[in-house]
Write a structure and sequence with these properties.
Number of strands: 4
CATH superfamily: Hypothetical protein apc22750. Chain B
Number of domains: 1
Radius of gyration: 17 Å
CATH topology: Translation Initiation Factor IF3
Distance between the termini: 12 Å
Largest sheet: 4 strands, mixed
Strand order of the largest sheet: 1-3-4-2
Oligomer: single chain
Strand content: 35-45%
Amino acid sequence: MILTNIETVPGKRIVEHYGLVSGNTVRAKHVGRDIVAGLKNIVGGELKGYTELLDEARNESISRMVAQAEALGANAVVNIRFSTSAVSQGAAELYVYGTAVRVE
């Protein structure tokens, strides 16, 4: 599966358009990560626990979008975008979407 954030795949021609595909996940903060984040706010530095959480959420969302595209018969997803939103206090959604196509 070819994934890109541009509207076409360089060197390829879009021969079939399947429409919008998406994937999402909602993740909650972890108490242990919050404690470490609080300490990091004092001394500064990367919040590695949250970086890992966002990486996991991004990978899960992309996997769900790819599965949806494959079910339609696509071999590429173009114009991919990410969005986040707060679902409740302490939980956020990561949403990814793009256009499923078949390229040659």
